[in-house]
Structure formats: structure tokens, C-alpha cells
Design a protein that fits this description.
Elements: H1 3-15, H2 17-29, E1 41-42, H3 43-50, H4 54-66, E2 70-73, E3 76-79, H5 81-86, H6 96-103, H7 106-109, H8 112-118, H9 133-157, E4 165-169, H10 175-183, E5 188-193, H11 195-207, E6 214-218, E7 230-236, H12 244-257, E8 258-269, H13 279-291, H14 300-310, E9 313-319, E10 324-330
Parallel strand pairs: 4-5, 4-7, 5-6, 7-8
Antiparallel strand pairs: 1-3, 2-3, 8-10, 9-10
Helix pairs in contact: 2-6, 3-4, 6-9, 9-10, 9-11
Bound molecules: S-adenosylmethionine.
S-adenosylmethionine (SAM) is lined by residues 140, 143, 147, 170-172, 175, 193-194, 197, 220-222, 236-238.
């Protein structure tokens, strides 16, 4: 392919990205993958079990086959190994919550041009995050879908020896607390989060039989007393949703909650110095622009400056994955 054609193909691929995204979102919305037990079904049979139009179903399912989510043989469709692992609710590897959660932002993203013109988040309600049980469960179990791999990567590069009491600030499904407690038998964790989110955390803690070492503490982290004398405060995927001043406020509170010699560790999206890479972080920064009042992705240098201003010493950072990082500081 000529370089010119390749460049044009790239543009078409980017602009057409919404089509594949929406097809996957709708397949999840319809719970389509749950309706395809082995050895599969024809489009007519699947349409009947989903209660949808059969002509539309066959066109739609061919696209899912081309996306690698279904397999089509002799006119019958079945789940591909990818879909069977991640998108069927009964699978132990199910991670459909995060896909359903992402789909909820479609209407907000449709206002991107307006957001950029006005510099304000989309005016689409976000009450599904904290005011609706199903929306909150998709969000918080979705964070667990993402975090369960990430927690193991963090454990490879972060040493929790000597940490007796950890505060997991905005700890969501307690994903990280659970992983840390499993690896460090001396570690006790307190997951501070909003009451609706803690219902999911509590379920996850019980599934993992860690009730005696991972506790929950309901509260709004901007308003509530965080507790004190923690050896480590873990702040994962929180700062990007807030303005710079709110982040600084949270780090000041964190400093007060730590024991002398205690550490704060921030886990978030990674930005290179000029904020123009990696791609996943830049896209997520736009997501925060669209769906939050003052959030965006912050670089390790910005976070390190805030830690210094809050009084922390021994500030350092480490890369976790190709687009996430840890920034750490100690209370002297
Ligand atoms: C993006 S999730 C991160 C969850 C978890 N730390 C992780 O990395 O998987 C943000 C978390 O912050 C919590 N949260 C948001 N605003 C909060 C507030 N004002 N006070 C306490 N928790 C809050 C949410 O309920 C959610 O669990």
C-alpha cells in the first residue's frame, strides 16, 4: 500500500472507530453473548431469544464475527473464545461491567464540540454513577474488571513490608486492598468510599473472605475525617476526576492522616512531560474533560510538585504499565 493510501486509511480507521465501539456496546446492552450457548444459534433463533428483528440481527452478528467476538459456521453463530471468556456473565473472567459503564458516556461524548467551545463538561446527567444501584454497580465492578490485573502489576514493583494499616482512599470495589492483603498477611486495610460504592466493596471483601482484615469506612473524602496514623495511604484512579485545587486539598488531608514516616502512593494515568502521550492517557484526559467539572490527567511532575507543597519528602515515581504510574512520597 502506498504511504499516501496508508495515511488516508489511518484517518478512516480513526473516524470509523465509533462504529465498532457502538456495535460492542449494543451487544453488551442486549446481553447477546449470554444468549449463545454452544453449539451456537442461527440469526433467526438468536433474534427470537433476544426479541429483536431477525434481518437486523444477522447483519449485526456478521459484524460481531468480523470483530472477532463471534464465530460463524454453517450459518450458526457462537461466542469466540474472547467473548466466551470476558463477555459471558457466567464466565469467571467476565468483564462486561466496564464495557456497560463506558457505554453510559455515549450521550456526553456526543457533546464534545460544545464542551470544547464552552470549556464546560457535557450537560448530560451523571446520576447513574452514585444515585442508581445498577449504574454504580457497573462502574465499581467495572473498576474491578480493570484493576484486578493492575493490582498484580503494582505488587511486582511496590513493597508493602512493614505496612500494618493502609487507607484505600476512594477504594471502590476494594480491588487493591484485597490484592495487597492477600500478599501481605500483616496488612490491614480501610476502604473509605461513598456508601453506595461500599456495598460492592463489601461483597468483594466477602467473596475473598477478608472481612477481618479489609474494613470499610463510609464517607465523602473531601468532607469526612479520614482517620489517622496510617502507614500508607493508597490513592488509585482518583486525582484525575478532580480539579488541581481539589487534588491539593486531598493531599493535604492525606498528609494529616499518615503516621510520621508513613507513605502516600498515588496510582493514576501516566503523562509524558508535554502531556501529548501516551494515547490512552490523552483520550482519558478528554473523557475527564467531557464528564467531570475540573478533572483531567496530571503528569507525575505536577503530582510530585503538589506532594512537595503538602510537605512530603522522598518523592519518586515509577511506571506500572504503558499508560499508568505510581507517585510516592513520605511524611517526615
Ligand atoms: C475511578 S474509581 C477508583 C476506584 C479504586 N480506587 C480503583 O482504583 O479501582 C473512583 C472511586 O472514588 C469514589 N469516590 C468518588 N467521589 C468520592 C468522594 N467524594 N468521597 C469518597 N469516595 C469517592 C468512587 O465511589 C469510586 O469508588
Amino acid at each position: 500500500m502506498s504511504a499516501e493510501k496508508k495515511d488516508f486509511e489511518y484517518l478512516m480507521q480513526v473516524v470509523g472507530g465509533f462504529q465498532g465501539a457502538k456495535i460492542l456496546m449494543v451487544a453488551c446492552e442486549l446481553d447477546l453473548f449470554d444468549h449463545l450457548p454452544s453449539p451456537g444459534k442461527s440469526a433467526v433463533d438468536l433474534a427470537a431469544s433476544l426479541g429483536v428483528d431477525s434481518r437486523a440481527a444477522s447483519i449485526f452478528m456478521d459484524s460481531l464475527a468480523a470483530l472477532g467476538l463471534l464465530e460463524k459456521k454453517n450459518g450458526k453463530y457462537s461466542n469466540s473464545p474472547l467473548a466466551a471468556t470476558y463477555l459471558v456473565k457466567e464466565s469467571p473472567g467476565y468483564r462486561g461491567h466496564i464495557l456497560k459503564h463506558m457505554a453510559r458516556f455515549w450521550d456526553s461524548w456526543s457533546q464534545l464540540a460544545q464542551v470544547i467551545k464552552q470549556g464546560k463538561q457535557a450537560d448530560v446527567g451523571q446520576d447513574f454513577l452514585y444515585d442508581q444501584e445498577e449504574g454504580n454497580r457497573n462502574f465499581i465492578w467495572g473498576m474491578n474488571d480493570v484493576g484486578r490485573d493492575r493490582a498484580l502489576e503494582v505488587l511486582e514493583i511496590l513493597d508493602f513490608s512493614g505496612v500494618k494499616h493502609l487507607l484505600d482512599l476512594g477504594g471502590g470495589a476494594a480491588t487493591y486492598s484485597i490484592a495487597f492483603a492477600k500478599q501481605y498477611p500483616e496488612l490491614q486495610s480501610t476502604v473509605l468510599d461513598l456508601p453506595i460504592t461500599l456495598k460492592v466493596a463489601q461483597e468483594n471483601i466477602e467473596i475473598n473472605q477478608l472481612e477481618s482484615r479489609v474494613k470499610t469506612r463510609p464517607g465523602d473524602f473531601f468532607e469526612a475525617e479520614l482517620g489517622h496514623d496510617y502507614d500508607l495511604v493508597w490513592i488509585s484512579q482518583i486525582l484525575h476526576a478532580h480539579s488541581e485545587s481539589a487534588c491539593k486539598q486531598l493531599l493535604d488531608k492525606t498528609y494529616q492522616a499518615l503516621a510520621v514516616g508513613g507513605r502516600v502512593v498515588i496510582h493514576d494515568f501516566l503523562f509524558e512531560q508535554d502531556h501529548a502521550a501516551p494515547l490512552k492517557s490523552t483520550l482519558f484526559a478528554v473523557h475527564m474533560l467531557v464528564v467531570t467539572e475540573g478533572g483531567r490527567v496530571y503528569s507525575q511532575h505536577e503530582i510530585a510538585d503538589w506532594l512537595k507543597t503538602a510537605g512530603f519528602i522522598n518523592i519518586s515515581w515509577k511506571q506500572v504499565s504503558d499508560y499508568t504510574m505510581l507517585v510516592e512520597g513520605t511524611r517526615p
